[in-house]
């Protein structure tokens, strides 16, 4: 199983009611949640770990996970509220208002951490769940307990969310020091003050630098390779990076490379099909509204 560890939330998207009045529609989301959903749809053994509420919004999240074949049995439930993100659009640009105080996801603690069984091959971390305590500290503790399992991190840094930069940097540096796979954007690297070569020198096996329409560059100790983006008519980019993460992990699973030893020994030729699967899956997601990753049957039909 690939266990996705991090935030799930409800995006309250702007809509117009039948009466013509402005309204909001609840849609399941969250970066790590989206990656879990995409993994399940791509046929990989996917699991989700994150605090889920027993409220009506938590039920929406649980139902979405089940519908996409994601095992959420390790996710602790509580009667704390679900994180809500109200979205408003100004000239087509989205702005978010987060309601996250004392929520089921944010108030996760070390006491909620699961026992990692032999069935878990890899752990995925990322998104805003790595920012807000106490949940962020709990995820960092779980990362430190990964043992011989493959760890992937997509920091997806959003500076506006960070309240204690020194604490966040220390936490993230420790997690990156344990990571086997790291996906970063130009913006992430600029904020971190690092580069792919430095991450590799720090112990990371595979670094993926996303370049939007130019595709992805994969870096290993053996060199680098650019994998072009798939051509797509872009409706929006919501969930594209999350879907790429899932496609990469699903591809590595298919290739039998979700092992720290095998991944380290793999060549760029071995890894490239997984990167390409991530790019192909992400192209489908950007071609339709919202974070709506493809099912494996859709990709096979296009092959």
Automatic annotation (TrEMBL):
A Pfam cross-reference name: PfkB
Alphabetical UniProt keywords: ATP-binding, Kinase, Nucleotide-binding, Transferase
Statement: the UniProt record of this protein carries the keyword Transferase: yes
Annotated ranges, domain Carbohydrate kinase PfkB: 2-294
Molecular function per GO: ATP binding; kinase activity
KW Nucleotide-binding (keyword) present: yes
Family: Belongs to the carbohydrate kinase PfkB family.
Name assigned to this protein: Carbohydrate kinase
Naturally occurring in which organism (per UniProt): Salipiger pallidus
Lineage: Bacteria, Pseudomonadati, Pseudomonadota, Alphaproteobacteria, Rhodobacterales
């Amino acid at each position: 199983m690939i266990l996705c560890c991090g935030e799930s939330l409800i995006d309250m998207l702007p809509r117009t009611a039948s009466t013509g009045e402005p309204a909001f529609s609840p849609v399941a989301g969250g970066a790590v949640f989206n990656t879990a959903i995409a993994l399940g749809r791509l046929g990989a053994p996917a699991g989700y770990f994150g605090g889920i509420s027993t409220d009506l919004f938590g039920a929406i999240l649980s139902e979405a996970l089940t519908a996409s074949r994601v095992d959420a049995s390790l996710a602790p439930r509580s009667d704390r509220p679900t994180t809500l993100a109200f979205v408003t659009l100004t000239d087509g640009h989205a702005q978010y208002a987060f309601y996250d105080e004392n929520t089921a996801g944010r108030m996760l603690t070390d006491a909620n951490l699961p026992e990692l069984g032999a069935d878990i091959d890899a752990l995925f971390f990322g998104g805003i769940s790595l920012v807000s305590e106490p949940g962020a500290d709990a995820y960092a503790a779980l990362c430190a307990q990964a043992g011989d399992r493959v760890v992937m991190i997509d920091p997806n840094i959003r500076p506006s969310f960070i309240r204690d930069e020194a604490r966040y940097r220390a936490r993230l540096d420790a997690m990156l020091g344990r990571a086997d796979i790291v996906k970063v954007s130009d913006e992430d690297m600029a904020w971190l003050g690092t580069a792919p070569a430095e991450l590799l020198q720090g112990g990371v096996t595979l670094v993926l630098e996303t370049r939007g329409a130019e595709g992805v560059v994969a870096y290993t100790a053996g060199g680098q390779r650019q994998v072009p983006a798939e051509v797509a008519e872009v409706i929006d980019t919501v969930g594209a990076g999350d879907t790429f993460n899932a496609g990469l992990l699903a591809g590595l699973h298919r290739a039998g490379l979700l092992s720290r030893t095998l991944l380290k020994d793999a060549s760029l030729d071995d890894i490239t099909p997984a990167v390409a699967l991530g790019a192909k899956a992400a192209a489908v997601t950007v071609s339709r509204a919202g974070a709506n990753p493809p099912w494996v049957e859709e990709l096979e039909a296009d092959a």
